[in-house]
Specification:
By secondary structure, the protein is an all-alpha fold. Helices cover 65% and strands 0% of the residues.
Length: 178
């Protein structure tokens, strides 16, 4: 197994008391000096891998975040907060603009709706009047056709009499009454 593959594994070869100096605290309890020295040697000797290119085993990687990582993290968080604030401000601005436009357009839209309703009412009344006119024309046609047919028949009889009179001009005079 290579050295890089077991970096994340904690191993305890023998039970050791916890040394508070690992976290930078002063130990309050008295420990045996031999145990403390072997504990420090086992922790710091081969548990920390030197940085890439650094072959000096005495320089160890400090615990916690270093300055470039901290700056990068703060910049990323600040950028994320700025993006959220900008998106929130854009949403608020768009919502305010839409509400303002709606309030300004409301009288004109209301007037357009009223005119549209008036137009629809007039169109409805016109259609009802046109329907009544068509029904009246239908009624007139139903009454006029038989009268026209009777008039045509009478005029045809008058024309036949006139033709007969023209062919035989006979005039009868009658002095009798009745």
């Amino acid at each position: 197994m290579s050295r890089a593959s077991n970096l994340g594994i904690f191993r305890m070869e023998e039970s050791q008391p916890f040394d508070a100096r690992v976290l930078g605290w002063q130990a309050r309890a008295q420990t045996h000096p031999a145990q403390t020295a072997s504990f420090q040697q086992s922790i710091f000797q081969d548990e920390f891998e030197p940085l890439v290119g650094n072959t000096n085993k005495r320089q160890r990687r400090p615990s916690g975040l270093d300055l470039p990582t901290t700056i990068t993290l703060c910049a990323a968080v600040s950028l994320w907060v700025m993006v959220v604030v900008v998106v929130g401000l854009m949403y608020w601005n768009v919502a305010a603009t839409v509400a303002s436009a709606r309030d300004q357009a409301r009288p004109f839209v209301q007037e357009a709706v009223n005119h549209t309703l008036s137009i629809l009412l007039h169109a409805d009344k016109s259609m009802m009047d046109a329907n009544a006119m068509v029904e009246g024309a239908h009624s007139v046609t139903n009454q006029a056709i038989p009268a026209l047919e009777s008039a045509m028949n009478r005029s045809a009889m008058i024309i036949e009499r006139l033709e007969t009179l023209a062919q035989h001009p006979v005039l009868q005079l009658s002095l009798a009454q009745g």
